[in-house]
Amino acid sequence: MKNAQQSRFTGFFILAGVVIVVLLPIAWLYQSAVQGLALSGDDPRRTAGFLGTGASLAADLSLLAYLLLLVPLMLYGYTAARRQLFVPQHKYAMTFVTVLNWAIIAYLMAVSYSGAVPYYSERAPSQLIVPTLHLITGGIAQVLATVSLIRMWFEYRLPVALRYEPIKPPMRVTLALWLITAALGIGIYIAWYGVPLQPRPEQPISAPTAEATPQATEEPDALATPAATEEATATVTPTAPPAATEDTSTGDDARKATKAAEDAAKDATKDAERATKRAD
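The structure corresponding to this sequence follows.
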């Protein structure tokens, strides 16, 4: 009996190997396609998010999807299995979580990781440790979840050799890895983009313009005008006499020049008369 159970449990490893063989080429081709992908400005993976961080809209939606939907559904599916509510509660909850996880990985996480690797490899390689660990735990969890889905949905269509037993240990390992991956993803979000919905530091409030304007107009009118009058009076009064002195000195110089010209003319007249007398 024990040997029969062990041989049937090997069906799990066979299914896991098939899933890996199928997924690896798909993942390699997809990763090659998204590497260096140029996203348009209105793409949700580039559009600014709404949680007040530097994350994109897709990253914000992914964070909320895990916090409000996927993690609660994981715990609900585990509780339903504990209560023997396998169909439809446990089956549908785990199916939804697995499919949505694959969608988020393909649309957002693969693109983000492919862009982060060349960026951090040159600047800070240590920043890739947690994302790589996130990739490993998430990848193993998704493979285990996919195997469990095949086992649940094709239970009576699979060959007897692939109907592995027991089914609970792989599911519990899947749940544990899912929760670890979700915690790592939240940590990566906070490390890269910051804590969501954090209040920004308040800016100091400046005085309103309406109050500053009357002060600016009243003070110059009441105080500056007398000061200006006194200064003008003090400066104009002593400067007037030098101006008059300059005018007087200028007049004296003109008189002296005129007198010198008259004397020169008189001397010239006298010389002319003397020359005439000699000629006579």
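Confidence is low (pLDDT under 50) at residues 205-248.
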